[in-house]
Amino acid sequence: MGLYGVLARKNLIAMLIGVELMLNAASLNALAWGRYGLVDPAHAAVSGQILVLFIIGLAAAEAAIALAIILAVHRHRHSVDVDDLDTLEG
């Protein structure tokens, strides 16, 4: 779903939502890996949870930076459509 959202959408905000969906899927995979993976059972749950916290922090930083870039693009071009961003101007 997330990859489809990134590849098929023309709106930058919809593409960002697709990326966030993929990061949430990665955190769920990390949590399952920590629970059922081939890690030492004493540290399995903790390692998955630490990885999930790292992914959530990464997603929050990525969302903040991406939204700031999208806001700057909207102020400059008055659109967040990817097709309108085909020229490089100063």
Residue runs with pLDDT of under 50 for 5 or more positions: none
Could you estimate the helical fraction of the residues in percent? Answer: over 70%
The gross shape turns out to be elongated
State the total count of DSSP E strands.
0
Task: Report the C-alpha radius of gyration, rounded.
Answer: 17 Å
- The first-to-last residue Cα distance is 35 Å
Percent range for β-strand residues: under 5%
How many helical stretches?
A: 3
**Based on helices, strands and strand pairing, what is the structural class?**
mainly alpha
**Largest sheet, strands/sense/barrel:** none
Map the helices and strands.
Blueprint (H helix, E strand, L loop, with lengths): L1 H7 L3 H25 L7 H34 L13
Nutshell version of this structure?
By secondary structure, the protein is an all-alpha fold.
